[in-house]
Amino acid sequence: MSGSSSTAPAGATGDIKLDMSDDEGQEESSELLRGEKQTSGFWTFEYYQSFFNVDTMQVLDRVKGSVMPLPGRNFIKHTLQSSPDLYGPFWICVTLVFSLAISGNLSTFLNSLGSTHYHYRPQFHRVTIAAVVIFLYAWLVPLGVWGFLTWRQREERQQSGYSFLETVCVYGYSLFIYIPTSVLWILPFEWLRWLLILVAMVISGSVLVLTFWPVVRDDTKVTAFATVATIVVLHALLSIGCKMYFFQTATHTPVPTLAPNHTAAIFTNKTH
Question: Which residues does the UniProt record annotate as the domain Yip1 (predicted)?
Fold first, then answer.
């Protein structure tokens, strides 16, 4: 009797604990589904870890959306679906930095191949310059765009636009097209390089215009068109600047040499 009575409460206690854990799991799941789960503070590691919590298929889908812009398709609303990440933009920027530096060095080497007056030296400083340019563009320009749009929305009492991380995300993915473009810039044909620049600018610029136009179109016409024009011009300056600096065509001025007969005549005149 005593043994059975002592065993029963233990089993009951185990059942109670199991039920409590199940209830906690269901409560946590319901909080996540309702969006009521509190996130960590921005000063914690867990806060930033959530922006790198993406799988390969999500990144590939977002890359695909950045190189195939469709009319009426908003990159943030339809591709990101209000779930921005920093994993894709970060590695796209890193890859683009090394792609520009390495392809630029190879282009300089191939253009100067066969020249007796050129001695090849690896230009490692191009990695630093590319990193500064790409990361400043990928962070400062979105910061300026986000700040301006936030200010205009408050002034005009418009509906809320995009968050800063969504703006950074769309800018980061829009740079992906320049990775294969920079590799093709190695080919020593100026007309092909400018054609590739035009194609890359149209593709990446379309992603930005289709994304930000729905936010600014309710503003005044002057402000709306000026904002979109500024976004496009800054993007074009990045493209043209990278091409002109990393893939400039080297020109070598041949050293003038005196003809043998002319040299002999000068030597004869001096002896007389």
Answer: 67-238
